[in-house]
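Researcher: Here's the sequence for the chain we discussed earlier.
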Amino acid sequence: MLIFDIVLPNAPVLNFGLGVPRNTTTNYSVKDCYVHPNGKRFVRVADRVSKKKSGYQTTSKVYRCFDWNEDGQKTKSLYFTEKLNHYRQKSLKNITSEEGIVERINRSIQAEGVFSKIKSGLNYHRFPCKGLAGIKAEIAFLALGLNLNTLLSKIRKGDFSPTKYKKNHIA
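Model: Thanks. This is the structure I predict for it:
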């Protein structure tokens, strides 16, 4: 039996729509169980192996609470995958680092700037076509045009470095 700790993310992550947020459970790795804040205990009952069409296999640990029955609800189950938890830890570490915070700031600022340029600068308020395929094509051409416009202005200026905003320059 493998023992692991789970990363508790800031936002609640519901497990397969069962309504039990992952960050509210407490992991007891010695007993290999989780305890919900209302005192209900989730015990490991099985390992579930699922296989994709490509042949990739994932193994999930199944934890079940046998005495849940609140308001006539059925038995609750939680599913945890070690690989996913490993990547979740790595991702949380990346986005909370100094470089990750700066990248998130830049992405939000740059997206707002592009939408502002599309709406105000190019006076583009509506799609001239109907249907999802036409709208996707229109967005692709618009993005391509904006990228070419940015590239040309950078070539004219001779500045090829990406625009980066620093954390302390943001209000």
